[in-house]
Design a protein that fits this description.
Length: about 500
C-alpha cells in the first residue's frame, strides 16, 4: 500500500498544481483581454498551448501590442508587454536603466550618449544614433520614460504604480510586470498598459528629425539639452532650413553658451550676438574670450580697446588674452598703449601674449614698454619679451637683454633668447659706424667699440657659434684696455686672438 499511496498522493498534488495553473492562466488571459479592451486595442488575437492561454496581441494604430507570460528563475513570473513599431532601426535607439551590465559595456569602450539632462543621464543608459536619440527624447518624453526606466509604471491612481523592468531596443518597448500572489495579470494592468502606450507613442521615430531637433532647441526647458540638440542639428544637418531657423532662434536664447554656439555657427551672420557677448561683463570670462576669438578681424580697434580695458579692470584674464591677440593684428602705434597696460598684469600668460602682440606691431615705439617689463622678476616671461624686442628693439635694448641673461647664467633658454634677440637687432642696424656696440659676457650693459671695417656689427663675446664670419671678440686686459699685440703672432683665420689690434677711440 505504501508505494501505491505515494503515487496517488503525487497524482493528487500534480492535479491540484495543474488546476491552479489552469485557473491562473485563465485569470491572466481575462486580465490581458480586459486591459486590451480598456485601451482600445483592435484586431485581438489570442495564442494558447494545451488549452492554456499564453498571449494576446492587438493593434493601437501603427503599434502592435503583445501581452504574454514570462518567468524569471523559480519565483518570479508575470506579464510581459511588448509594444512594437516604434520605427527605430537596429542600433539606432536603445534605452535602459543604468546598472552592472551598462557599467561593463562602458568599461569595454561602448559609447554612451548624454542629453544634458543630468538626472536622466544618470538614470538611463542610452546609445544609438545621436540625431535619433536627441530628436526623440524631448522634455516631456524624458519625464514620462524616466519613471518607467527607473522601475515603476504610474497607474493613474494617486501615488500608485506597478513595479516593472522597462527597456527600449530594436524598435520596441518591453516591460516586465511581476504578478502579485493570487492576482494573475493584476487589476492595475489596464492603467499600466495605457501609460506604456503613451510612452511608446512619444518614442516613435519622427518623420522629420531636423524639424524635431529644431523644436527641441526652441522649447526644451534645460539649456544644456537645448545646446545638445543645437550641436547635433548643426553637425548632422548643416544646410537644412530648419538648422538655420534654429540658429537664429538660439541667438536670442537666455543661456550664454547657447547664444555663443549659435553665433559661432552662423559665421558672419552671428557677429552681432558675438559682439554682445564679447563686450558684456555679465557672461563668463571664457565665453567672452571665445566670442572675441570667433570675431577675428570683425572687432573694430575701438571695440577691441574697450573690451581689453574692461577685461583688465575686472581681472578677466581669458578675455584679455583673446583681445590682446586681436590687437596685435591691428599693428600701429594706436594699440601700443593698450598692450602696454596688459604687460602690467600678474598673469604670466597674459604678459607673454601682450609682449608677442607688441612685437607683432613691428613698431619701435613698443620698445620702451618691453624694456620696462624686463625689470619684473619673471624668468617665465622674459623669453617672450626678448623675442618681442628682437622684432622692434634698437641698440638701447641690448644692455637690458644682456642683464636679463646674466641674472640666470645657467638658464640656457634665457641665454638663447637673449642671443637671438640681439642678433635680430644687429641685423637691422644698417649704416652703423665704427664705435657700435659690442657685448661681452660677464660685462652686462657695458659698451665697447667695434673694429674698423666692421660697421654695423653687434656681437656677443663668448658666443662664437653666433658670430659672423671673420668676427672677433677681444677680451680686455685688467685695466680695461686691449693688451699689446705680439707682432710675431699671426691672426689669419683665427676666430679670436690673444692680442687684438688696438681699438680706435671715439669722441
Amino acid at each position: 500500500m505504501g508505494p501505491l499511496m505515494g503515487i496517488l498522493t503525487a497524482g493528487v498534488v500534480l492535479s491540484v498544481v495543474y488546476l491552479f495553473a489552469h485557473v491562473a492562466a485563465q485569470a491572466r488571459g481575462r486580465a490581458w483581454r480586459a486591459a486590451a479592451h480598456a485601451v482600445g486595442l483592435t484586431d485581438l488575437v489570442s495564442s494558447d498551448f494545451l488549452g492554456v492561454e499564453t498571449g494576446v496581441t492587438g493593434r493601437a494604430g501603427m503599434l502592435r501590442v503583445t501581452l504574454e507570460r514570462y518567468q524569471r528563475g523559480r519565483h518570479e513570473k508575470g506579464t510581459r508587454v511588448v509594444i512594437d513599431g516604434l520605427g527605430h532601426p537596429s542600433y539606432e535607439f536603445a534605452l535602459r536603466k543604468e546598472g552592472m551590465g551598462s557599467a561593463i559595456e562602458k568599461a569595454f569602450g561602448e559609447r554612451e550618449i548624454e542629453l544634458g539632462d543630468r538626472g536622466f543621464d544618470q538614470l538611463a543608459y542610452i546609445h544609438g544614433s545621436p540625431r535619433v536619440v536627441h530628436a526623440v527624447l524631448d522634455h516631456e518624453t524624458r519625464r514620462l520614460v524616466g519613471d518607467l526606466i527607473d522601475g515603476s509604471i504610474p497607474t493613474g491612481e494617486a501615488g500608485q504604480s506597478l513595479k516593472a523592468r522597462v527597456a527600449v531596443s530594436d524598435g520596441a518597448l518591453r516591460a516586465e510586470i511581476p504578478e502579485k500572489a493570487f492576482q494573475p495579470g493584476g487589476h492595475q494592468l489596464p492603467d499600466a498598459l495605457r501609460t506604456l502606450l503613451e510612452a511608446s507613442r512619444r518614442l516613435v521615430l519622427p518623420d522629420d528629425i531636423p524639424a524635431r531637433l529644431a523644436e527641441n532647441v526652441k522649447a526644451d526647458r534645460l539649456a544644456q539639452v537645448r545646446l545638445s540638440n543645437l550641436l547635433t542639428l548643426t553637425r548632422e544637418y548643416p544646410d537644412y532650413e530648419a538648422t538655420k531657423t534654429a540658429l537664429r532662434t538660439a541667438c536670442e536664447d537666455g543661456d550664454d553658451e547657447v547664444r555663443l554656439r549659435a553665433g559661432i555657427a552662423l559665421g558672419d551672420k552671428g557677429h552681432e550676438v558675438l559682439r554682445q557677448i564679447a563686450l558684456s561683463t555679465d557672461v563668463a570670462d571664457g565665453q567672452a574670450a571665445r566670442a572675441v576669438s570667433a570675431l577675428e578681424d570683425s572687432l573694430t580697434l575701438e571695440e577691441a580697446k574697450a573690451v581689453l580695458e574692461k577685461a583688465l579692470g575686472a581681472g578677466r584674464r581669458a578675455t584679455a588674452g583673446a583681445v590682446v591677440k586681436a590687437l596685435g593684428g591691428f599693428g600701429g602705434v594706436e594699440v601700443i598703449e593698450s598692450l602696454a597696460a596688459a604687460l602690467e598684469s600678474e598673469d604670466d600668460k597674459l604678459v607673454a601674449a601682450a609682449a608677442a602682440a607688441l612685437g607683432a606691431t613691428g613698431d619701435a615705439a613698443a620698445e620702451a614698454s618691453l624694456i620696462a617689463a624686463l625689470d619684473r622678476d619673471g624668468p617665465t616671461i622674459w623669453p617672450a619679451i626678448a623675442e618681442a624686442l628682437g622684432h622692434v628693439g634698437t641698440a638701447a635694448a641690448v644692455p637690458p637683454l644682456q642683464t636679463m641673461a646674466s641674472r640666470y647664467p645657467f638658464d640656457l633658454g634665457l641665454r638663447r633668447a637673449s642671443r637671438q634677440a640681439i642678433a635680430e637687432i644687429q641685423s637691422r642696424l644698417t649704416g652703423a659706424t665704427p664705435g657700435q656696440l659690442a657685448l661681452a659676457d660677464g660685462d652686462a650693459g657695458q659698451l665697447s667699440l667695434a673694429e674698423e671695417g666692421r660697421e654695423g656689427q653687434v656681437s656677443l663675446a663668448g658666443e662664437p657659434e653666433d658670430s659672423t664670419e671673420g668676427e672677433t671678440q677681444w677680451p680686455t686686459d685688467a685695466e680695461g684696455g686691449p693688451p699689446e699685440r705680439d707682432p710675431s703672432e699671426s691672426t689669419e683665420g683665427e676666430a679670436s686672438a690673444p692680442h687684438p689690434p688696438a681699438r680706435r677711440e671715439t669722441d
